[in-house]
Amino acid sequence: MSDCPHDPAAEGARMSFDGEMSYGDYLSLSQVLTAQHPVSQAHDEMLFIIQHQTSELWMRLAVFELEAARSALQAGRMGQAFKVLTRVARIFEQLNSAWDVLRTMTPSEYTAFRGDLAASSGFQSHQYRQIEFILGNRQPAMLKVHEHRPEWHGVLTEELNRPSLYHVALTMLFDRLRGASVPEGLLQQDRPHSADDRVRALWAEVYGDTTAHWQLYELAEKLVDLEDYFRRWRFNHVTTVERIIGFKRGTGGTSGVAYLRRMLEVELFPELWHVRSDL
After folding, report:
1. Considering Cα of 195, then 233, then 161, then 253, what sign does the dihedral take?
2. Beta strands in the chain, from DSSP E residues, in sequence order
3. How many other C-beta atoms can be found within 10 angstroms of the C-beta atom of residue 80?
4. In the 3-class helix/strand/coil scheme, how is 33-96 assigned residue by residue?
């Protein structure tokens, strides 16, 4: 091993960035790394803030990619849609891993600053709501939570006026298998999608002859994969909350673990799960 100090400049590395864009400039790190403002003296509040901020950044990417996937499906660019849906599933895998870090915080450590959070809660995340709306779990009553921020309320209201990702998939399903539009009343944009036997029968056709319907088959599996990771994220959320606060009410006023457990029962693409019993 050489005792000579290493000088990256000797290899051509750029060492001076006066007047030039650097790594930190490009990523706006001055703003990102100074966006943590604990309101207590508790050591673990920094973990709590960064965990939620990074989760919101991953959700920002999830929204961006889900919108791209929906647009690609609508335009018939199936390969692009499949690639993006795979990425979204991995984003939720990344979000899942974040709970492992947060679970290193004990009930005693969280209690030290929980009261300083006031009514703030992940329940109020507009990006999480946007993801749910895009995927099809549309609860218009939840818009009220965001009325205090017109820009967020507007984004969510606009999303309710667009077809969900699953609506786009079902439109393609009926068109390719029946050469017809989706039956009237099946796609309700202002409420969650409910399981429908007609849709289940069409997916059964796809799974019954995957060679003839390969693109629809691949689309179905991409959607199942996405919901699989999304469910895992929800489950880990419940487990983390129960581990840290037990069955206390959430800071946002929800019933806490009881509320989160009900969310585990939500099916985004119900027919894709139910059809497995028919195969």
Report:
1. positive
2. none
3. 15
4. CCCCCCCCCCCCHHHHHHHHHHHHHHHHHHHHHHHHHHHHHHCCCHHHHHHHHHHHHHHHHHHH
Q: Tokens in use for 260?
A: 């989160």
Tokens of 203: 């997916």
Q: What is the pLDDT of residues 103-134, one digit of tens each?
A: 999 999 999 999 999 888 888 899 999 999 99
Q: Mention every residue, 6+ apart, whose C-beta is less than 8 A from residue 17.
A: 25
How far is the CA of 126 from the CAs of 56, 108, 184, 197, in angstroms? Answer: 10, 29, 30, 32
* CB-side neighbour CA atoms (13 Å) of 166: 31
Per-domain residue ranges for the chain? 42-245+255-278
Say how far apart CA 117 and CA 121 lie, in whole Å: 8
Reference 172, options 195, 203, 196, 194; nearest CA is 203
For the full predicted model, state whether its pTM sits above 0.85.
Answer: yes
Cβ atoms within 10 Å, residue 115: 9
Q: Which CATH architecture has domain 42-245+255-278?
A: Up-down Bundle (1.20)
Q: Sort 265 into a burial class: Cβ within 10 Å, 0-12 / 13-18 / 19+.
A: exposed
Listed range (1-10, 12-21, 36-45, 156-165) with the worst mean pLDDT: 1-10
Which element (helix H / strand E) includes 177? helix 165-178
DSSP label at residue 182: P
Q: What is the DSSP letter of 181?
A: P
Mean pLDDT for all residues in the chain: 91
Tell me how far apart the alpha carbons of residues 168 and 222 are, in angstroms, rounded to a whole number: 14
